Amino acid sequence: MELTDQEKIRRENLAKIRELGIDPFPAATFPVTHLAADIPQQVETDAEGNVTNLQEVTLAGRIMSQRIMGKAAFANLQDSSGRIQLYVSRDDIAPGEDKTLYNTLFKKLLDLGDFIGVKGFVFKTRTGEISVHVKELTFLGKSLRPLPTPKRDEEGRVYDEFKDPELRYRMRYVDLTVNPQYKEIFRKRSRLITSMRQFLDDLGLMEVETPILQPIHGGAAARPFKTHHNTLDVPMYLRIANELYLKRLIVAGFDGVYEFAKMFRNEGMDRTHNPEFTAVEFYVAYKDYNWMMETCEQLLEHAVQSVNGTTTVKAGEHEIDFKGPYRRLTMADAIREYTGENIDGADEEELRAIAKRLHVHVDKTMGRGKLIDEIFGEKVEGHLIQPTFITDYPVEMSPLTKKHRSKEGLVERFELMVNGKEIANAYSELNDPIDQRERFEDQLQLAERGDDEAMATDEDFLRALEYGMPPTAGIGIGIDRLVMLLTGQKSIQEVLFFPQMKPQAPAAPKN
Q1: What is the pLDDT of residues 202-212, one digit of tens each?
Q2: Alpha carbon 25 to chain centroid, angstroms
Q3: How does it assemble (predicted)?
Q4: Per-residue pLDDT reduced to its tens digit, 335-364
Q5: 131 lies in which domain range?
Q6: 415 is in an annotated binding site
Q7: Number of structural domains, the chain?
Q8: Where does residue 83 rank: exposed (0-12), middle (13-18), buried (19+ CB within 10 A)?
Q9: What is the CB-side half-sphere exposure of residue 262 using CA atoms within 13 A?
């Protein structure tokens, strides 16, 4: 491994720290009592502005800057919450005759990015900055690579910022250290999942786990990742959906189940798609899609309010309000409203003609359902900014959905569209095993025509349905896209800690 000059210096410092008898990677627990960002909120002062509390605080984190001034120094410590200024005096941290801790370790061997622990008291500097006067200093971890450090020239231009998206996504450990403002995205993501889980628990549903490695790729129309199980000598698939397993649990007698799950689809990548994504799906017995629409409104209103303190979010030039009720529009009415075309009763050839008039690209592998999906996706989705339920899909688009109770050729399904993208997909679940088998057979015909997203027949799921499943409502909600909305992000990579990336090109050899 070829090292840069900076990396060589840091390894030399590492060796010198060991020579001092200090372990540069200690294993002992360091008892932190305060976080940097909390201290300014907790400070109490007297009439002269002197800090009267926080006489003993213990913090740990990275050194992000140093200003050495002989026998004293200022430094910035960054922990998980933010930064705080440290004041370090030689005679405080090295009170005896041996000044090695300050003169050698702190002044010469401590590099930016190193971890230290400090113990001291809080005070205000002459300029009024809340700081920690360090009385004890402990070395906690050596950084062998220098962190990117932005530099500003005389004209105020900034250089060497760690802003390149590909580098940021590839090296999150660096990104979130030098760009800590992005941590709030992931804190909101965590709060969102927590608030949704609380809502579903309060609804009386049980959280469950279902297989990620499955013998059949079912539950959605998508291309799977395929692998091989050596012991069983059978092909296996990473799940594209957990729907069929959750419905098996409804058959088993649970009234309501939910799962926050990772899904995997071997498809394209763009600003709103990642091959691995997170969704929450829940299924409730003795309910239908009308009940699920109302529940979805309540869930999202609760979650957005919990995360952002308001039901409105800013998405580019739009302000989106998640407070219910949401607009409801059938798929046929939505296509008619935004294109002027009527798809009611249109057969496959008529749909191809409509697509051609609308300049929507289609191919011969597409059946009636896929054609309608393409028309809707190209010409309607982008107009649906405020939360809108698109309801009553054609039966060909929904092989797992109960047929509409009063509208021939349609099913009881809705998708929630927000800011031009699908956020949720829900059904009155199909519980007729004979009808379900026929739908699987229709999917098989599409697969034979070349549709690699067609759903496979799951004989075990059909067997489960034959034992009887009550009327059931089910929904899947995409967590990643919802986080994008709540945090104002335009790219899904911004809301994933570790998005999928192309392999990194090897470094060019140096002459």
Answers
A1: 999 999 999 99
A2: 32
A3: Homodimer.
A4: 999 999 998 888 899 999 999 999 999 988
A5: 5-147
A6: yes
A7: 2
A8: middle
A9: 10
